[in-house]
Amino acid sequence: MAILPAAVAVVLLVAGAQGLAVGSGWDTARWAVTVCAVVVLLLAAAVAVAIVRARPAISPTVPLPEKAAPDLYRLVRDLADRLGVPAPSAIALTPDCDSWLEDRTHPSAQPLAGTGPETAARAAARPRRRVQAAPVLVIGSPFLWWMRVAELRAVLAPVVAGTGPSAHPDIAAARRFVRGLDGAVADAAAPVPGPLAGVRRVPRAFVGWIAGLLLRSCRGHAAEMERSVAAAASVRAQGVDYGLRIVAQEQVGLAYAGWDRLLTRVALPAWRMGRWPSRLDAGVVAALTELSRRDRLADGFASRLGERPACDLLEEPGAADEAASLLAARLFHGGPARPGPDWSPVDWQQYPEEVVDRKWRAEAARLHRVLDSMTPAPAPAAEPAMAAPTLARVVEHLAGRTGVGEELAAGISAAVAREEAAARQHRAVGPSGPAGAPAAAGTGGDVRDPWGPDPLPLFPLQPPRTGTELLADHVVAMVCCAAVDTAGAAPGLDWLDGPALLIDGERRADLSSPVLSLVEDGDAEPLRTWLVSIGVRTDKPVRLV
């Protein structure tokens, strides 16, 4: 469409030169069409330049240099040789249960080469032209800890086989074009800072509109190309560990289930407390081992643990696990870019005391603050013990009273919302270091710059909790605090369910039902019976945060 006015102008000019279209009317038409063609071509050139220069989307990852994993690089290169395809140019880890190839030849995808503290100075040191390199192999970090070496090789075979089609000039050009369009659309949606932002946004909006039209028109063809590339890579990989790959795919599904459970049940409570577990990948192994112990369908999976794990291919598995764990907290919760006083790592051995116990006592304190705000101010002669933080106070407030639970749930929801908003504001203005600063020790910079000002979390784990769910969680926390303080219970960690209450060293998982009876129906008898069975004193004040 861009060259159509130019083609018409050429026809009119040639016809005029041959004396076929003469007269003042034809002269006016020739000049009008020629000016229109020049304007359209200039606009097309500007749009093309904007699409070429648009920054493509790059997945946030933890770079893994060859010196940090020489055995893993050797395994991948041997796999590429067996498949007869180019080896990936680099390897990176992602805190997810997936693996793929990613083109990072665009100048904006190159690591910051400068060493100064200023982001602008280091960004200027990036190459200005697209580099010629094979795609980067991105590996899900849970795979390295749960899978054995042979299983990892079998799972990576069809992924590595994709470097062959990636080297084809036509496929590479088509992918660059689609990624450029996607980047241009994203640039158009980004806010424009500075003065005259509305005027400066007009060219971006125009480029984004054109790129969106092109992207929608080629979406079906691009999807068909990718399906064909994946099918060709799968066929090529059938000659390498095909039988083992069928068995290894079962481990992929199991690892995904364990990773999702670990993040939502174990890591998320710690993140909300301002702590981030520093060994999430090691936790996957513990969670899946516990699953194999409980579930007969998973029986036998733990017997594989005697074989060599794939994380042995790394020189420092602990450092890689810590970096991937910090990135997971950044992506799935939106935590600060790097550790600090309000965002510190926690080890699994410290988790019960530093996360579970603090979580219970913080929620119990919030529950009593909301109760205080709902209770009228007592007379001066009133007994001070009436406002003591006891479990009896909570139970009596909720038992047999209509509408009290909803009112208390609304108060807790408002308090949680205020605290989360304050935490987000603190993270936005807090001393989290300069944007684009190096990542965790031993990991280097990140091409997506997840440590910078990009809006995170990218992938929230759970929808917002309802008021009833929040109230039930706070009542459970209050019961657990009372059990710890008066009945000799202890906080614990369940790898599949998160924070747990331990009575005589055994987990009690039967607390949810009596608490829900109290919260939803106002029936306190099931909870009172449960408390008597383990010897909890409801009249004793509990220790709060």
Please tell me about this protein's structure:
- This protein is α/β, with parallel strands linked by helices and 545 residues long.
- It contains 18 helices and 9 strands.
- The protein has helices spanning 4-17, 24-53, 70-83, 119-124, 141-146, 149-160, 163-166, 169-189, 197-237, 242-272, 280-294, 317-332, 351-374, 391-398, 404-429, 467-486, 512-521, 525-534, and strands spanning 62-64, 90-94, 99-102, 136-140, 275-277, 344-346, 490-494, 498-503, 506-507.
- The strands form 3 sheets. A 4-stranded mixed β-sheet has the order 1-2-4-3. A 3-stranded antiparallel β-sheet has the order 7-8-9. Strands 5-6 form a two-stranded parallel sheet.
- The protein is globular.
- This is Integral membrane protein.
- Keywords: Membrane, Transmembrane, Transmembrane helix.
Strand and helix layout:
Blueprint: H1 4-17, H2 24-53, E1 62-64, H3 70-83, E2 90-94, E3 99-102, H4 119-124, E4 136-140, H5 141-146, H6 149-160, H7 163-166, H8 169-189, H9 197-237, H10 242-272, E5 275-277, H11 280-294, H12 317-332, E6 344-346, H13 351-374, H14 391-398, H15 404-429, H16 467-486, E7 490-494, E8 498-503, E9 506-507, H17 512-521, H18 525-534
Parallel strand pairs: 2-4, 5-6
Antiparallel strand pairs: 1-2, 3-4, 7-8, 8-9
Q: Indicate the proportion of strand residues.
A: 5-15%
Helix/strand order = HHEHEEHEHHHHHHEHHEHHHHEEEHH
- Cα radius of gyration in angstroms: 30 Å
Number of helices: 18
- What would you call the shape? globular
Number of strands: 9
Low-confidence stretches: 113-125, 379-386, 431-448
* Strand line-up in the sheet with most strands: 1-2-4-3
The helix content is 55-70%
Q: What's the pLDDT, averaged over the residues?
A: 83
| Largest sheet, strands/sense/barrel | 4 strands, mixed
| Distance between the amino and carboxyl termini | 67 Å
The computed structural class is alpha/beta
